[in-house]
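pasting for ref
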Amino acid sequence: MANSALLVMDVQQDIVDIVDDGSGYLPRLSKAIDGARAAGIPVIYVTIGLPPGDPEVSPRNRVITNAVRDGLFAEGDAGTEIHPDVAPRQGDGVVTKRRGSAFSGSDFDLVLRRRGIDSLVVTGLATSGVVLSTLCQAVDLDFGITVLVDACLDTDPELHRVLTERLFPRWGDVVTVEDWLQVIAPR
């Protein structure tokens, strides 16, 4: 675990308001973050932020175009802030991306390489959005993958289930927050 980082992706106020179903997501995520910090595992936050006004988004990108139309993701807006229940602390990394994947339009790869990170422990909103997009690229870049299944959430529970039970296990480990904490707990 020495070369791992915990990724907290798109856990921003507006996205939490849309995706969180009241299932205790934020307390579980907070527990994972606290566990990572206690174990000396870096925590890296990834957010989506677009320049205000008329961001460079092709109408072919339906997800981002619809979000912009709905007033989401504008840098500087209160809704793009990381949710206060899981806010970064001094020493945590924060990366702003411009598209779905953490690697798209950001310095994420550089941040990982600079820290010597070769394994990613993935959390985020939504499973079918940032989590899937980031994992696709991370697998191609030969990162080790662990997905914290109950620290990812989607507006479509069935899609979340299919991804976490059928696809993600082909790419890496899929475990609960509690099981992961047992593995990383300082002894």
